[in-house]
Amino acid sequence: MSHWIIAPIILPALLAPFIVLAARYHIGIQRVLSVAGVVALIALSAALAWQVTDGSVMYYRLGDWAAPFGIVIVGDRLSTMMILLTSVLALFVLLYAIGSNWDNRGRHFHALFQFQLMGILGAFLTGDLFNLFVFFEVLLIASYGLMIHAGGKARLRAGVQYVLFNLIGSTLFLFALGSIYAETGTLNMADLSQRLAFVDPAETVGIRVAAVLLLLVFAIKAALVPLHFWLPSSYAEAPAPVAALFAIMTKVGAYSIIRVYTMVFPPEVDATSGLHDLWLLPAALVSLAIGAIGVLAARKMDRLVAYSVVGSMGMVMVAIALFTPQGIAAALYYIVHSTLAAAILFLVSDLVRIGRGNVDLTVQSPMAGTYLTAAFFFAGAIAMAGLPPLSGFLGKLLVLDAAFDRPLMVWVWAIVLTSSLISVVGFARAGSLVFWKAHSIDPPDQDDQSAPDTARPGILAYGAVGGLFALLVAHTVFAGPVHDYTTKMAGQLFQPDEYISVVLETPGKLSKPKETQ
Amino acid sequence: MEFLVASAIGLLTAAGIYLVLRLRTFPVILGISLLTYAVNVFLFVSGRLTVGAPPVLRDTLTSYADPLPQALVLTAIVISFGMTAVVVMIGLGAFLNSEDDHIDDQPDETPTGGQP
Q: Domain locations in chain B?
């Protein structure tokens, strides 16, 4: 049993209070500590991801209590890839926040950022449903602080909506956990997958309600229609680096659905058949359509990006809802892509806001640094809309291929392709209004604009966006190896015996529990 | 007793949902508090209702109360308490900033918002 796997949770958990206590008044020291912490996280995550490439499962028992009694931290290919993605994203977001001085516009940005990372990484690594709830709360309570960072009327109002919606989500999560515990007597995921076989076929009402409630909770996190209402205004009003970090938070919902609904409630289980395997796909297709329509209808660039996030989550969920190894592999490839693309677009919309004081999709005079910003927007839009040559196109192709010869294949193809076309039109409209037509009006027309509130974004800010873009290009160039790896990941998810036996059969304190009759 | 507990949970949940749907800060916060009370009781009884039984295993005992839901409900209470405090502060800030305690987007502000 290696202790390293809990380090990605412990490190930010210790760093955050240290920043608050020791470096409260020194933004420079906070920045150094925060960046150093995230770099260390990348190293840790990469090492952990490297160790499980052979398909082994890492685990850690807190207090050495054996699995169904104690809490376990488990790392397999999927978890370690997600923590690596999170920490890499966090580094660039943090660099952008420093470069654009966002972190200095309110207090405690870096401490909250570290707590947020702790919650996200914990949610990816835990092997216990109640612990998942706790880490969800950790990441949410940090995100409440980050969401209203720097204050402002519209942001506070959006913050209230965001907090209340998520509080209701947490309440639902607890109801789901209560019913699962009442039905099966365990909350450990590996143990649950075993005990589900003992549920009486005539008495499946409780477990079916629990499965649907849990799916609702994860769907709220993943912003699946009809539970997406919180996302557009929250993400649009949040500070841009925070919104870019939130790009990974919707993926926490997608990850939880993949984890729980391949291991605990796979579609083959009779007790819960006919629920999520039937209804997830139509809901995902509707999200995809709503996202594309929102992109076309948006009047501000940040809303446009937020709706494109809804659309890309729809795409991820379409691939997940196929519940085949091929579909999950495509979904995992697309998750990495859409996290990076969404982060780039949120940061670009902030560059536009800094350049001209607002993000309205109207024709205004050209802004400073327009060429570089326009280039980044162009690249991000191509990636998000799924045009060649970037990874959005490849991801979409993989999803379409996975949906081939599945039921509802016609619908999947029709909606995926149509929504791609609509979002291409939406992005093209936005780009031409903001960047292209800007040269058609006279420059000195600037009297009604509120002046940009702080200094120009530094080279660091552009560097951060460029870094994310380089990652996206790498994700495209190395699509073959990455997809091979996600295929292996999906294979591991659909053969959870190794995971279950490692979690349940490794001896610890109180091991050899009595088997349920 | 099962009937009493179940109807208490149902009543709290119904009142909570009604208040949440009022879309003004104060009733919504009250409604969420009621919902969290309901879910705390619900979690508590998810280990079945037992009266006068100890939660610690001994060799001589035949009937005992499930200790796990008690631990879970303790965590849930602490978290919901903290969350309520946070949402009161943010709600107060939003109200003082805009002199308006509506939760939903007002139509003139954000025409493209997808709020219900």
A: 2-51+65-98
